[in-house]
Design a protein that fits this description.
mainly alpha, 3 helices, 51% helix
Length: 69
């Protein structure tokens, strides 16, 4: 799609996007970093990558054994 647009149209789109982004409220990383850390630590107990999936609830566990004759 971007190849079909002229340079002027691309620049107009970029300016419009920047106008939208400038309206976003800014928060210092010192605050947001702590909030993200707290959230991740609070959700760690529910994370299957950290605590694993119980064998009986694992949909990818093989149901039968493999027998090679």
């Amino acid at each position: 799609m971007a190849q079909d647009l002229s340079e002027k149209e691309l620049l107009k789109m970029e300016v419009e996007q920047l106008k939208k982004e400038v309206k976003n409220t800014r928060v210092p990383i010192s605050k947001t970093g702590k909030e993200i850390k707290d959230y991740v630590e609070a959700q760690a107990g529910n994370d299957p990558l950290l605590k694993g999936v119980p064998e009986d609830k694992n949909p990818f566990k093989e149901k039968g054994s493999c027998a090679i004759s």
